[in-house]
From TrEMBL:
Similarity remark: Belongs to the sigma-70 factor family. ECF subfamily.
Keyword terms of this UniProt record: DNA-directed RNA polymerase, Sigma factor, Transcription, Transcription regulation
InterPro entries the UniProt entry points to: RNA_pol_sigma-70-like (IPR039425), RNA_pol_sigma-70_dom (IPR014284), RNA_pol_sigma70_r2 (IPR007627), RNA_pol_sigma70_r4_t2 (IPR013249), RNA_pol_sigma_r2 (IPR013325), RNA_pol_sigma_r3/r4-like (IPR013324), WH-like_DNA-bd_sf (IPR036388)
Name of the protein described by the UniProt record: DNA-directed RNA polymerase sigma-70 factor
Gene Ontology biological process terms from the UniProt entry: DNA-templated transcription initiation
Domain RNA polymerase sigma factor 70 region 4 type: 105-155
Gene Ontology cellular component list: DNA-directed RNA polymerase complex
A GO molecular function held by the record: sigma factor activity
Amino acid sequence: MNPDPRRARFERLAPTVIDAVRRYLARRTDPATADDVLSETLLICWRRLDEMPEEHLPWAYAVARNCLANAERAHRRRFRLVARISRLDPPPTVVDGPSPPDGDLAGALSRMRPEDAELLRLWAWEDLAPAGIAVVLGITANAASIRLHRARQRLRDELVGKTGPAAGHDRSTEGSRT
């Protein structure tokens, strides 16, 4: 029996948040960063438990998304610092970085705007409806629905190889004056 209701609520919510956020992070970053960001997310969930809505999963995704953005900014700062240090004092050997992901989908997502790619990942990988995506991104459900529709069209265009300003609009020359 747990006499602390706050702790009891957190212990009831934590398993669903942990599993879902772990999957969310595993699809977006390396395992070590995912573990760090998951820990930070749970800490914030604990601190802000009173602000956590009944529909807690999109809220937790938004927290994880912000924590991941902070971790990526810190990673970029470290990378720039290492680059500056390596120019001043180069290492004796150079190690290759990680290889880029393969596949048509990964290529198409990488060519899209990061905002559109993230929106599609939230929809496809996290199985969120536009209302849940809206909570994660801090926009209205209507805006999320419209952006999702447009992002899916852009992804479709990327996958079939359409490019240029006329993508999605086939111009008819019938009846035109030339």
